[in-house]
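I hope you will forgive my troubling you with a question about protein structure. The full record is reproduced below for your convenience:

——
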Amino acid sequence: MIKIIQVLGLMVLMLVGLQLTACSSARVPVGKAVHQPKLVKQPVFHSSDGSELYAQHWLPDEPPKAVLLLLHGFNEYSGAFATVGEYFAEQGVAVWAYDQRGFGRSPYRGLWSSAARMAQDAQEMAQLLRREYPDTPLYSIGTSMGGAVSLLAAAEHDLAVDGVILVAPAVWTSTTQPFYQRWGLELALKFAPGWSPTGESLQIRPTDNRALLGEIWQSPWMMHGGSRMDTVAGLVDLMDQSFAAAPKVKQPVLLLYGNKDELVPVDPINKLWARLPKTRSKTQQIRYPNGWHMLLRDLQGEKVMADIIAWIEE
């Protein structure tokens, strides 16, 4: 995930002398807005540029008291949050999610598009949900990379939600990274943009819920085998943009972070909190001493989700 960047300096220096120049950069092509965004059966989210992004939902038996637009993390897909969706649905909250472009079951799997296009996707989906549930409170909930997308959409694309929930948001900006990470990524982009290190040697632990993690990784829609360096660079660009835009957020924000997070360091989270506007009385942060990066799916995930529901119901 994000800490793959930490070893780039050493790994790139080892590989520069190899046949890296044969790798070329690649990105998801982004089209012009030629369609009205819409939801169709299956369901599929048709974005304004014609891209078909796989979507799914978890709905309560009765009309929902709130709706969540869930944005997944880096290398994940919407189905990895099935336990989360089921929990919220049992509590009377509807959850909608989609596989962000370049991830899961969406087109151009493994390639990056752009931070702006991903934020626009979130805004278009939020508008669709507003029309679907006109009288129901709507919130975005983004985890890790999805938190950065949600933050950027709220700040720059007038995200049509009543509040923004950031779960361990990916805001480790390039300026706060060690120099060897920045230089390593620059070298990789120049000599090996298609190189895909797995990062397994880092032995990063994303959650204490090992059983659920093993179940999630069995899905073919998770990104296995590492991430391309140009995709990692796209993630860093997204983090830079979302962090820079944070003071423009107009909606109330709930910022959630676990003190045992091994993917997003605490210092960028502290800096983000300092940048977020505090004019909204509902803006709040909660720290979990035993929380990991996958807060919603940790062993104490139900406590985190209960805190979210309590915040929504205030």
Residues 2-13+34-313 form a domain with the Rossmann fold fold (CATH 3.40.50.1820).
